[in-house]
Amino acid sequence: MKPDAREAARLLANPTPRVRAILLHGDDHGLIRERAGEAIRAVAGTLDDPFRLAVLGRDEHDRLAEEATALSLSGGRRVVWVRDGQDALHASVASLLQQPGEALIVIESAALPGRSKLRTLLEAAPEAAAIACYAEEGRALEASIARMLQAEQIRIDPDALTWLARHLGADRTATRGEVEKLALYAGERGTISLDDVQAVVGDAAAASLEDAAFAATAGDHAAADLAIERALTEGLSPIALARALLSHLHRLRQVALLTQAGTPQSDAIARLRPPVFFKRRAEFTRALSLWSPEALSEAATATDRLERACKRTGAPDLVLARHHVVVLAQRAAGRSSRA
Known about the structure:
Blueprint: H1 5-13, E1 21-25, H2 29-44, E2 53-56, H3 64-69, E3 79-85, H4 90-97, E4 104-109, H5 117-124, E5 128-132, H6 138-151, E6 155-156, H7 158-167, H8 172-186, E7 191-192, H9 194-200, H10 204-217, H11 221-233, H12 238-260, H13 265-270, H14 281-290, H15 293-310, H16 317-338
Parallel strand pairs: 1-4, 1-5, 2-3, 3-4, 6-7
Helix pairs in contact: 6-7, 7-9, 10-11, 10-12, 10-16, 11-16, 12-15, 12-16, 15-16
């Protein structure tokens, strides 16, 4: 089966015996690992019980049938946790689903295309599930952050939540780490403000993405190049860069359109939510002087194409991302010199 978001949450919280296999695939490795851990704890109670849990790395996939049919020496349902799942597992998993068994098989995998044999098998099987795990953004990411804080009995102001969602990276593990740090800072039953978030969140990679976006649209080629290298070194993906750029371009275009319609630029900037950080105000204003609404729309379209290109299997995503930032910076610099 192919559960929706709500069904997936219920299934992971309580994988009933009728569910024999769960495939978690996508590009958010942190979310995949978190969801795998949730399903395993729901069945085995822990991630370190050698009698009820078998962990198979890439070089141990040939033991899947053996481990899935083994008896639990301590009683209770057994779990087989398969890392780095691939289509080569298709035959083994199909055979196991055709015979009686109680063990739960949890398979972690990178993003699998729709034609993947393993994905197709588990989406079609009523006793299995294939759950896509892609980086959350926008309202979905805000909702996840709010749930994490609510579990810690921490409140967060709406503008702080919006700012936090925009500045966190694309990986679930990094997101949870920052949320836990904020919860510790806020204290029991505390409330987190925008100032708190800006003071505490130290995601250097996400900050570097913002540096790259601001520098590129302001025509600062050297700063943009340095920022993107720093972000990629910190582990953020080119897809995260594309999304950061796209968000920045949309905010610039929103202000540019309001200004074109007669709204004073300062008032138009003040309407943005979350607000432009005061240390970024000069770069933001400079970019507005270099880009028309039409040019910003074209840049956003090109950035959307970049994200799609980076998602293609085998694409040279790092090269594409670096080239895209260079092109944006050069266009802005060219407008600056003509002005």
